[in-house]
Amino acid sequence: MTLDVKLPKEIELRVKRDKALRDIIRRKIEHEISKEIKEGLFFSMLFDEFLEGSKLTEEDVNRVDHKVKEGIVERLGWK
Question: Do the Cβ atoms of 45 and 51 come closer than 8 Å?
Answer without folding.
Answer: no
